[in-house]
Predict the structure of Imidazole glycerol phosphate synthase subunit HisF.
Amino acid sequence: MSAKLRRVVVCLDVDAGRVKKGVRFESLRDVGCPVELAARYEAEGADEIVLLDVSATVEGRATLFDVVRRTAERLFIPLTMGGGVRTVEDFERALRAGADKVGINSAAVADPELITRASERFGAQCVVLSIDARKNDAFPSGYNVVTHGGRKPTDLDAIAWAKRGVELGAGEILLTSIDRDGVRSGYDLDLTRAVVQAVTVPVVASGGAGSAEHVASALANAGADAALVAGILHDGQTTVGAIKSVVRDAGIEVRA
C-alpha cells in the first residue's frame, strides 16, 4: 500500500473583498485580490485553497459568496470556504457558489448539531470543523477553544471539542494555534499531535508557518495530513513549489 500523500494548503483571509494578513488575527494588512492569488497559488502547486471571511462572524453578516464564486470559477483544485456560515442554508449557498468544503467555527460552538445537520445533508467530506485554540492550563489538554476570530474564549477544551466534532459528523479538522498565528515561529506541534491522535479524520495544521521546514515538521513530527500556509507566500518569502521540494527532501510524500 502506498504512503498517504500529504497536502500543502494555502489560506486566503478575506476582509471587505481583499486578502488580508495579520498577527494573531489582528493588525490586518492588504496583500491582494483573492481570485488572482488563488489562481497564482494553484499554478505554483497548491493542493487546496482555503478562503476565510475573517470579519463576517465578528460583524454579524453573511459571508462573501460572490468572492467564493469568482474564486471557484478560476480553480481546478478543491476550495474550502469559511466565515459567517451559520445555517445549513449557508452551507448550500457556499457549495452552490463553488466551494468543495465548508468550514464552521463559531457557529458550531453555538450550535453543535449544525455539524450533524450539514453532514447528513451534504456528506461529512463537505464539513470542516475549524478550531481556533489558545494555550490555557486551566483546561485538561492545556488548550482552550476561542471563537469570533480569536476574540471570545469558550468553556471548551480543544482536544475534547475536536473529538466531539468528529462524532457529530465533521469530516476534517482545520486546527489553528492562535498563539502562533502570523508569528512564523513554527506550528504548535504539541497541539497538532494531540488532535491528530484524538480523531479519525484528516487534520490540517495552521498557525505559525515561517519556513518550508516548519511545514515538513508539522507533517512528519506532528502527523498532520496537511499544513496551511499564508503569510510567507504572500510576502514572497517562498513559493508552494519550494515548500514541497523541502517536504519531499524530508522523506514526506506530497501531491505533485
